[in-house]
UniProtKB/TrEMBL annotation:
UniProt xrefs under SUPFAM superfamilies: Band 7/SPFH domain, SCP-like
Name used for this protein in its record: Stomatin-like protein 1 isoform X5
UniProt gene name: STOML1
PANTHER family cross-referenced by the UniProt entry: SCP2 STEROL-BINDING DOMAIN-CONTAINING PROTEIN 1 (PTHR10094:SF25), STEROL CARRIER PROTEIN 2 SCP-2 FAMILY PROTEIN (PTHR10094)
UniProt domain SCP2: residue ranges: 138-229
C-alpha cells in the first residue's frame, strides 16, 4: 500500500544508501572495509524498507573493478549554463554508469575557472535549467511521466523563484512562474541541491529522504523526475 513497485523502491533505496556511503571514500578504504560498509548499508536500507513490510536479510558489496572516469557527456557540456561562472565543478561529478555499478569520484584538482562567455553571476541555476532542459523534452518523456510539476527554488539570498515543468501534453514545456493549471506535485528545493540533482550527485529519492527535497502531492509522481534527469545523460 505504501509503494507501487516494491522491487524498484528497494533498489532505489539501496542505490541512494550506497552512493551516500561510498561517494567520498577512497577506493582502498572501500576495499578494506567492505564488510563494515555492508553492515552499515543493511541498517540504513532496513530503516526505510521496514515501513513497507520488507526486511532486507543481507547486503553484499562487491568491488570487481575500478571504472574509468566518464567521458564528456551532454550534461557536462551544458553544466556551464547551469552553474555560476567560476563554479565549474562538474569535472568532479560522478555521472551514472549503469544500474548496478559503483560510482567513483575523481579526486584530482578542479579545473581553472571558466572565463569565457556564460550566464551572469546573478543568474540562478534554475534559469540555466530553463534554457537547457527544453531540447530534451519529448513525446516519449511525456508518455513516461505524464505529470505537471511546480518547482519552488530557494535561492542563496533566501528568496524563492518559481518554475514549472509540464509533461502532460505534446512534447512538454518548461518555463518560469506557475503552470496554467493545478500542478500534480509541488517541489521545494534549494538552488545548491538542484545543481546536485542535475549533476546526478543526488537522486530524487535520496534528496527526499534526507529532507533536501520537499514534496507536496503524490510522492510516486515526484519520483518520476528521475526519468527527466536520465534524459540529461
Amino acid at each position: 500500500m505504501t509503494v507501487k513497485d516494491l522491487n524498484t523502491a528497494t533498489r532505489m533505496t539501496a542505490q541512494n544508501a550506497m552512493t551516500k556511503a561510498l561517494l567520498k571514500r577512497p577506493l582502498r578504504e572501500i576495499q578494506m572495509e567492505k564488510l563494515k560498509i555492508s553492515d552499515q548499508l543493511l541498517l540504513e536500507i532496513n530503516d526505510v524498507t521496514r515501513a513497507w513490510g520488507l526486511e532486507v536479510d543481507r547486503v553484499e558489496l562487491a568491488v570487481e573493478a575500478v571504472l574509468q572516469p566518464p567521458q564528456d557527456s551532454p550534461l557536462q557540456q551544458l553544466a556551464p549554463h547551469l552553474l555560476e561562472v567560476g563554479m565549474s565543478s562538474v569535472a568532479g561529478c560522478a555521472l551514472p554508469l549503469g544500474q548496478d555499478t559503483l560510482k567513483i569520484v575523481s579526486e584530482v584538482e578542479l579545473p581553472a575557472p571558466h572565463t569565457g562567455a556564460g550566464p551572469s553571476l546573478k543568474q540562478p541555476v534554475a534559469e540555466g535549467l530553463l534554457t537547457t532542459l527544453q531540447p530534451y523534452l519529448s513525446e516519449t518523456l511525456v508518455s513516461q511521466v505524464g505529470a505537471c510539476y511546480q518547482f519552488n527554488v530557494i535561492l542563496p539570498s533566501g528568496t524563492q523563484s518559481v518554475y514549472f515543468l509540464d509533461l502532460t501534453t505534446g512534447q512538454g514545456r518548461v518555463g518560469r512562474g506557475v503552470p496554467d493549471g493545478i500542478p500534480d506535485v509541488e517541489v521545494e528545493v534549494a538552488e545548491a541541491d538542484l545543481r546536485a540533482l542535475l549533476c546526478r550527485e543526488l537522486r530524487p529519492l535520496g534528496a527526499y529522504m534526507s529532507g533536501r527535497l520537499k514534496v507536496k502531492g503524490d510522492l510516486a509522481v515526484a519520483m518520476k523526475l528521475e526519468a527527466v534527469l536520465r534524459t540529461l545523460k
